[in-house]
Amino acid sequence: MNLAADLANRRPTSAAGLVLHSPATPQDLDDTLDTLDRGERIVDAADGNERAHQVNAMLAASTSHPRLTDHADSGWHVHYRDDDHSVGRLLSALFAMGTALHLAGRGMHRLQRCAVTECTTIFADTSRTGRQRYCSLRCANRDAVRRHRARTSSAAAR
């Protein structure tokens, strides 16, 4: 999930930045950017039902039946994609499954944008309480200072 958020916040500008198991092509870049657009629509969904509908559409478009694999002798694990997927399709399947597992396991509200108005950063809330509002400590502090200044300014005006 964090990989998807990182790529959404710092979108790749060339296929050279997308190397995974094989070199990426310009089509892989286009597919990845399309996946990131779909991911942003999931983040910005009005409610859990709309979010689930969009995640389900992404899953249907990019994943296949689950399979066990030990392709790199790194231990058995589950893939939700065919082994011959391109880099762009691979990222789409990873993002779709990661998003679905995160939302189902942590809560449908735990994928969002930073609460600071001028910050559009996307983050996955992995906090223990599920109440994370800011993408970083910097944004949380910036907002706290803003609220403090607003309170002291209104108190001084009285």
pLDDT averaged residue by residue:
91
Beta-sheet strand percentage? 5-15%
End-to-end gap = 48 Å
Cα Rg: 19 Å
Uncertain residue ranges: none
The helix/strand series, from N terminus to C terminus, equals HHHEEHEEH
Helix content: 40-55%
**Which word captures the global form?**
elongated
Number of helices: 5
- Secondary-structure-based class equals mainly alpha
Number of strands: 4
Q: What's the arrangement of strands in the largest beta sheet?
A: 1-2
Major sheet: 2 strands, antiparallel
Written account of the structure:
With 158 residues, the protein is mostly helical. Helix content is 52%, strand content 8%. The protein has helices at residues 2-9, 26-43, 48-62, 87-106, 137-157, and strands spanning 67-69, 77-79, 111-113, 122-124. The strands form two sheets. Strands 1-2 form a two-stranded antiparallel sheet. Strands 3-4 form a two-stranded antiparallel ribbon. The chain is elongated. The chain starts with a helix and ends with a helix. The mean pLDDT is 91.
